[in-house]
Amino acid sequence: MSLFLRSYNSISEIPKTTWNTAFADGGPCLSHAFLQCLENSHSVGEDTGWQPYHLAWFKDGDIIALMPGYKKLHSYGEYIFDHSWADAYRRYGLQYYPKWINAIPFTPVTQQRLGIVPNKGVEMDVLMSALTEFIAAQNLSSAHCLFLNQTEIDTLNTTEWAHRTSVQFEWYNQQYTDFAEYLSALTARRRRSIKKERKSIAKQLVRIEHKFADTLTQCDMDLFYQCYQITYLKRSGHKGYLTQAFFEDLFATCHENILLVIAYQDEQPIASAFYLYDNNVLYGRYWGALKDVSGLHFECCYYQGIEFAIEQGIERFNPGTQGEHKILRGFAPITCHSLHYLVEPHMHKAVQDFVERERPAIEQYRKECETLLPFNQDNS
Length: 380
Prior knowledge:
The protein is an alpha+beta fold. It has eleven helices and 15 strands. The strands form two sheets. Strands 2-5-6-8-15-9-14-13-12-11-10 form an eleven-stranded mixed β-sheet.
């Protein structure tokens, strides 16, 4: 039987064991349970512009590969910005939406994006070629694989696709025994600055507490969601993409992967930061505060994360997208990768030309950021 592709409008239609086996290295955000929470809570769905459209490759009646995917009616919540491409389509009288993206909604972190079922003898390039044919047959304008990991980029033949790069910042654990040892790797100036920031938190009578599944209460969850909404209201004028039901489902089904950091002042909760983690990576996802306290964002979102990663022996800490201020706190610039295929040949060529011209500037920016890292020369 020849290879064929099938789409699914819900993750529940794909066997959980098959999915989790294919994405064994994908982290908590690629688990079947996480994607199910998004759908069950209506954080994604037709009325959100994120229609689940997961793909499975079949051969001889068996699933051999999988991709999480969504049919998109807009370009919000992706963090790889293509609004100018959509505008170009509009100017030429073409429809850019719906498009298809291979991504985790509202989660701009590099992870596995193509799940291969073990022992099936799959050629990745064959899968990707079948994908471009499928996208055209479904009358979708384009396909976008966002935040692929380095192995996928190294393995795939990307000549058919426009390869775009971007920059994020991550912290790496050099087998530090504690936060003090981490600070010793920094320049004296940065050590003093970070110590001053952390002492300021204590002087303002702020206490930090870590909450896990066995200690989380409904009040903790309500506080976090209030903080989450406040952050989005300040930044974007709306209350956030994710519903409260999503977080409550997540706390119930993925509790072993959740860390909630809560800050108290005068024993009243004033801020919260939400993390996901596994054995290898800590993901800083959401943060918010009911009260402005100088330095509290750095404490809850960076220093508490670093301390937790050291305590747990976690190798890498991704604190979220953007933010050059992370560099001076030891977060190194990394290159992120995305692949784009536009069905209309002239538009595809234009996008390929654009990303090829853009890439050297992105790499130069990454190198310039690298020079600002605050490590001692012996630790660089």
